[in-house]
């Protein structure tokens, strides 16, 4: 049994980063949409996916786009994230996007991945768009986080492992890190 509110709350319990996915249409007009449904898929070939809602004004343009950029946001981009989550907003005014290879890219983003469209799937009221990554720009710093329908920042204290060293813990027995009662060892 599942009601719509429980489903939303369950999805909201999973934290994500926040991206703005951008493209240009055949007339050269820039399009952008705030997206948290972004996911890595494959290292070789390098594939990622994102899911735009069929109801989004930019859906058709994104679905047809041969190339698009996925810009991973920082905490200071939260106002821009809200602007790009508003249909009909002037999303590109004073935001600092630069056009690279015909696609708008946000140079201040934590990371930008320029993708060539690889696969397109229907998925209920969303599409799943898989892109092959052609180029990336990566900067240092913390991400903007979306959790429980709010923007958040990461706590600076890493749990269990220093940042980037999580792999070191991969082969340890689970019980070393996690108590049967759900408690976590320091
Ligand atoms: C934090 C956040 C995450 C979002 N994630 C998605 C998403 O993954 N997919 C989606 O279609 N819309 C998502 N949205 C909503 C769209 O950004 C919003 O519907 C936007 O108006 C679409 O723009 P458009 O109608 O001009 O295309 C998100 C909004 C916010 C604030």
From TrEMBL:
GO terms assigned for molecular function: FMN binding; riboflavin reductase (NADPH) activity
> A GO biological process this protein is involved in?
pyrimidine nucleobase catabolic process
Q: Start and end of every Flavin reductase like domain? A: 11-153
Q: Which residues form the signal peptide?
A: none
Give the keywords, sorted. Answer: Oxidoreductase
User: Domain of life here?
Assistant: Bacteria
> Record's SMART domains?
Flavin_Reduct
InterPro entries the UniProt entry points to: Flavin_Rdtase-like_dom, NADH-dep_flavin_reductase, Split_barrel_FMN-bd
| PANTHER family attached to this UniProt entry | FLAVIN REDUCTASE, FMN REDUCTASE (NADH) RUTF
Q: What is this protein called?
A: Flavin reductase
Which species does this protein come from? Streptomyces sioyaensis
User: Lineage of the native species?
Assistant: Bacteria, Bacillati, Actinomycetota, Actinomycetes, Kitasatosporales
């Amino acid at each position: 049994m599942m009601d719509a509110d429980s489903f939303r709350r369950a999805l909201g319990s999973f934290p994500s980063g926040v991206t703005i996915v951008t493209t240009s249409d055949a007339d050269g007009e820039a399009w952008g949409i705030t997206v948290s449904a972004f996911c890595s898929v494959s290292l070789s070939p390098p594939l990622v996916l994102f899911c735009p809602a069929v109801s989004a004004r930019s859906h058709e343009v994104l679905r047809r786009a041969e190339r698009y950029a996925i810009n991973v946001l920082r905490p200071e981009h939260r106002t821009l994230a809200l602007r790009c989550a508003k249909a009909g907003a002037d999303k590109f005014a004073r935001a600092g996007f630069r056009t690279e290879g015909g696609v708008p890219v946000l140079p201040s983003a934590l990371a930008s991945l320029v993708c060539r469209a690889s696969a397109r799937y229907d998925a209920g009221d969303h599409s799943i768009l898989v892109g092959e990554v052609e180029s990336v720009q990566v900067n240092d710093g913390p991400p903007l986080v979306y959790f429980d329908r709010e923007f958040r920042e990461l706590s600076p204290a890493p749990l269990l492992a220093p940042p980037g060293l999580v792999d070191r813990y991969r082969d340890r027995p689970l019980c070393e890190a996690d108590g049967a009662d759900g408690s976590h060892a320091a």
